[in-house]
């Protein structure tokens, strides 16, 4: 049991292998039944199919959490 999303994600990322940030594979899907957009970590980029099936926005982003430590959707407007 974790205190919040931030605690769960931090624990996951500090206890798993591989250990470099570029190798970590994290995927965030808003709706897995109707996948139209994904947020993926750098480690996933080589696994994505090529054009035209996938368009990659290469802008680096960090996971964001609210004051309570709950994960904010990467798709939410800042």
Question: What does it look like?
Answer:
The structure is a single chain. With 78 residues, the chain is α+β, with helices and mostly antiparallel strands. The protein has one domain. The chain has one helix and four strands. The protein has a two-stranded antiparallel sheet. A two-stranded antiparallel ribbon has the order 3-4. The chain is globular and about 40 Å long.
Low-confidence region ranges: none
What series of H and E elements makes up the topology? Answer: HEEEE
Number of domains: 1
Oligomeric state of this protein = single chain
Distance from N terminus to C terminus (CA atoms, Å) equals 29 Å
Strand order of the largest sheet: 1-2
Roughly how much helix do the residues carry, as a percent range? 10-25%
User: How would you characterize the largest beta sheet?
Assistant: 2 strands, antiparallel
User: How large, in whole angstroms, is the Cα Rg?
Assistant: 14 Å
User: What is the average of the pLDDT values?
Assistant: 85
Give the number of helices. Answer: 1
Strand fraction equals 5-15%
Question: Helix/strand/pairing class, anyone?
Answer: alpha+beta
Strand tally:
4
Shape field: globular
Task: Describe the structure in brief.
Helices cover 14% and strands 13% of the residues.
Give descriptors for this structure:
two-stranded antiparallel sheet, globular, alpha+beta
Q: What's the structural blueprint in terms of helices and strands?
A:
Blueprint: H1 5-15, E1 27-29, E2 38-40, E3 64-65, E4 71-72
Antiparallel strand pairs: 1-2, 3-4
């Amino acid at each position: 049991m974790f205190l919040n999303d931030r605690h769960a994600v931090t624990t996951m990322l500090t206890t798993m292998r591989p250990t470099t940030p570029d190798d970590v594979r994290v995927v965030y899907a808003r709706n897995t039944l109707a996948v139209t957009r994904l947020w993926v970590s750098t480690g996933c980029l080589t696994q994505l199919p090529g054009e035209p099936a996938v368009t990659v926005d290469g802008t680096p982003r960090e996971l964001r959490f609210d004051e309570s430590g709950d994960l904010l959707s990467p798709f939410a407007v800042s």
